[in-house]
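// run 5 | inverse folding | seed 20
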């Protein structure tokens, strides 16, 4: 990120602005990523909450 920021000073801000505009449904598209295969003590509560939301 630092090297990108040196080349394009607003790149980091642009990335974080874009992340703020993402809807939860865009992050859990099973046809794009195998979220159901994720595991671990930090991931399992997140997956559980996403299932509840969707």
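// decoded
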């Amino acid at each position: 990120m630092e090297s990108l920021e040196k080349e394009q000073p607003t790149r980091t801000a642009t990335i974080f602005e874009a992340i703020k505009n993402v809807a939860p449904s865009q992050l859990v598209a099973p046809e794009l990523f195998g979220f159901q295969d994720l595991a671990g003590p930090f991931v399992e509560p997140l997956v559980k909450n996403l299932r509840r939301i969707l």
